[in-house]
């Protein structure tokens, strides 16, 4: 990449067999480098779990990757790179640069105890004794809980059962189930770090049943991985949102967890939500498609001019449980449109760049369908190499160290 001597390479595999895919994605990445990679970011869709397994995917990677190369990554809903846009396969990004050092931290049980996991991550980085200039973060995504006697449910209609299940949320967290708690992890993490960060929530194919993180030769669950980069490169971070106001504002009454809403505009939360969204509460089929609808009705507030979406997580009788913490008593209903996504992408990717790494909400794939290639056309005209991940949530921290855990956004690291 010219005078900077930075070499960044992106590879991919669409092979069905996990080990063969691991070999191909690694070979197609590092063969573009003239020096061994300083680190290797690996991402895969969930499909390899049933096509050899992720252990075999990593075995294939390490058949080719130089021993000792720091590796981090995880499962994603899909990805876009120089080759195309895919909802199945594996992709990787490798860096090689004369002035770079890398430290990796891991935190476990992120749903059970995000505070402890953040401390574990940061302390592991600190022990490696480098001054970190920016971070990549990957954290375990949400898993739909299984309630005793009820099974996997997102909508519990009974008031009595809903109140009972609400009391069981802490037990679900202890079992590493439920929402990802990535927002809480990030809040605790910024107490230990002092450099910008771009993060992705690991995800599956929309079933919200499992996800994995990759750390060197290990396959992890319910974990967070932090990759710290020390270098004289100065990357640029950017966030844009394609959310558009629907013109509906509400006031909410929250419980102490800042996730459970008991009242909307002084009315019982669940029936008022259904009224606002025009969902027919008695139509079981409509309600069972909960997440396919809920992702398109985020309630939002602004924090430092960034739109923070709080996503519907569960209906627990008369109460609404949100997937992330609510930081305001006043929320506004937003929505997504394909035209808005395209227009925001034109702004985000208008600048000429050698390399772009980005994290985009997986909802964008569903919203755009085949039109997702319009984003690729935009990026192709401005960027030499790029890798965009479609994830289950997006985190960004700028130099002011204010944490922003977002949904329905586009976050970019540009070099």
Explain what this protein looks like in three dimensions:
By secondary structure, the protein is an alpha+beta fold. Helix content is 25%, strand content 37%. The protein contains twelve helices and 29 strands. Strands 11, 17, 18, 19, 20, 21, 22, 23 and 24 form a nine-stranded mixed sheet that branches. A hairpin with a 2-residue loop joins strand 13 (213-215) and strand 14. Helix 1 (18-30) packs parallel to helix 2 (54-64) and helix 3 packs across helix 6. It starts with 6 loop residues before the first strand and ends with a strand.
Keywords:
alpha+beta; nine-stranded mixed β-sheet; globular; 415 residues; 12 helices; single chain; 29 strands; six-stranded mixed β-sheet
Q: Rg, please? A: 21 Å
Count of helix runs: 12
* Structural class category: alpha+beta
Fraction in helix: 25-40%
Number of E strands: 29
| Biggest sheet layout | 9 strands, mixed
* Mean pLDDT metric: 92
The low-confidence parts are: 284-288
Note the beta-strand portion: 35-45%
What sort of overall outline do the alpha carbons produce when their principal axes are compared?
A: globular
**Tally of separate domains:** 2
Protein topology:
Elements (H helix, E strand, L loop, with lengths): L6 E7 L4 H13 L8 E6 L9 H11 L6 E5 L2 E4 L2 E3 L3 E7 L3 E9 L5 H13 L7 E6 L6 E2 L3 E2 L2 E2 L2 H9 L1 H6 L7 H8 L7 E5 L11 E3 L2 E3 L2 E9 L4 E6 L2 E11 L5 E5 L2 E2 H9 L6 H5 L1 H5 L4 E5 L2 E5 L1 E5 L2 E4 L7 E6 L2 H11 L4 E9 L1 H6 L4 H8 L2 E9 L2 E4 L5 E4 L2 E6 L1
Parallel strand pairs: 2-3, 8-12, 11-22, 25-26
Antiparallel strand pairs: 1-6, 2-6, 3-13, 4-5, 4-26, 7-15, 8-15, 9-10, 12-27, 13-14, 16-29, 17-18, 17-24, 18-19, 18-23, 20-21, 20-24, 22-23, 25-29, 27-28
């Amino acid at each position: 990449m010219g005078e900077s001597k930075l070499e960044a390479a992106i590879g991919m595999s669409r092979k069905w067999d996990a080990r063969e895919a691991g070999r191909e994605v690694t070979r197609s990445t590092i063969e573009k480098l003239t020096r061994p990679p300083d680190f290797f970011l690996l991402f895969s869709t969930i499909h390899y779990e049933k096509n050899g397994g992720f252990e075999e995917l990593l075995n294939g990677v390490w058949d080719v990757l130089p021993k000792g190369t720091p590796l981090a990554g995880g499962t994603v809903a899909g990805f876009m790179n120089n080759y195309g846009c895919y909802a199945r396969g594996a992709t990787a990004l490798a860096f090689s640069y004369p002035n770079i050092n890398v430290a990796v931290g891991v935190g476990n049980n992120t749903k059970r105890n995000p505070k402890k996991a953040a401390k574990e991550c940061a302390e592991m980085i600190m022990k490696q004794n480098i001054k970190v200039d920016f971070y990549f973060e990957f954290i375990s995504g949400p898993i739909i809980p299984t309630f005793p006697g009820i099974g996997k449910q997102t909508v519990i209609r009974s008031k009595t059962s809903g109140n009972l299940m609400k009391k069981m949320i802490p037990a679900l967290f202890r079992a590493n189930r439920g929402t990802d708690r990535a927002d809480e992890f990030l809040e605790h993490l910024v107490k230990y770090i002092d450099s910008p960060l771009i993060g992705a929530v690991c995800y599956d194919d929309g079933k919200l049943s499992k996800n994995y993180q990759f750390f060197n030769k290990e396959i992890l669950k319910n974990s967070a991985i932090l990759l710290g980069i020390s270098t004289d490169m100065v990357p640029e971070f950017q966030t844009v949102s394609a959310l558009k106001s629907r013109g509906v504002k509400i006031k909410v009454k929250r419980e102490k967890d800042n996730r459970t809403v008991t009242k909307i505009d002084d009315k019982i939360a669940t029936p008022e939500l259904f009224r606002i969204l025009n969902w027919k509460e008695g139509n079981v089929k409509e309600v069972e498609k909960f997440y396919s609808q809920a992702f398109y009705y985020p309630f939002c507030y602004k924090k430092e001019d960034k739109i923070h979406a709080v996503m519907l997580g569960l209906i627990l009788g008369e109460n609404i449980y949100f997937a992330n913490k609510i930081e305001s008593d006043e929320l506004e209903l937003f929505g997504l449109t394909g035209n808005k996504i395209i227009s925001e992408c034109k702004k985000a990717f208008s600048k000429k760049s050698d390399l772009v790494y980005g994290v985009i909400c997986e909802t964008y794939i569903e919203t755009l369908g085949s039109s997702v290639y319009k984003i690729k056309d935009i990026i192709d005209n401005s960027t030499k190499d790029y890798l965009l991940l479609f994830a289950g949530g997006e985190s960004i921290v700028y130099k002011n160290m204010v944490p922003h855990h977002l949904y329905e956004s586009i976050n970019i690291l540009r070099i």
